[in-house]
Write a structure and sequence with these properties.
159 residues; alpha/beta; YbaK protein; five-stranded mixed β-sheet; three-stranded antiparallel β-sheet
Length: 159
């Protein structure tokens, strides 16, 4: 693992600790870059995986982070109707610049900039969900309500 992913994972661990969230970040031997890989590694259902997807608004190019269930695809038209502005997937360079993470390791904690966070309401169906911890080899489990209360995420429908 590169030192860059180590420092990204450490940033997530530090953020979780600062917030007093008692979770253990697990470094896994297998990639968790896709929801299926993450579910296999965490031994959970794909729906319990939090996909952290960075979009940008079309008009003013501002980042937004959408935390969606690994079982879902984000429907940009449905999200647009709720946010009141058009969104598009962000480029890998934009994602790193705005979050400090590479695609596949974006975490809702340890972001280098304050970014609006939205969470797929389907994640509330699970008592425990799994999110990336700064690299595509690191994950942590958390209760959905804790994720909402500590990130300020707004719950929306994504599909």
């Amino acid at each position: 693992m590169s030192s860059k992913s180590n420092s990204s994972t450490q940033r997530v661990k530090d953020a979780l600790e600062k917030l007093g969230i008692p979770v253990t970040v697990q470094e896994l031997p297998d990639s968790t870059r896709t929801a299926k890989e993450a579910a296999d590694a965490a031994r959970c259902k794909v729906g319990q995986i939090v996909k952290s997807l960075v979009f940008q608004t079309v008009t003013n190019r501002k980042p937004i982070l959408i935390l969606t269930s690994g079982a879902n695809q984000v429907n940009e038209k449905i999200v647009r109707a709720q946010l009141g502005e058009e969104i598009q997937f962000a480029s890998p360079d934009f994602v790193r610049e705005e979050t400090g993470f590479a695609i596949g390791g974006v975490s809702p904690y340890g972001l280098i900039k304050e970014i609006p966070i939205y969470m797929d309401r389907d994640l509330l169906e699970h008592s425990i969900i799994w999110a990336a911890a700064g690299s595509h080899h690191a994950v942590f489990s958390i209760q959905p309500q804790t994720l909402i209360s500590t990130t300020g995420a707004k719950v929306i429908s994504v599909h």
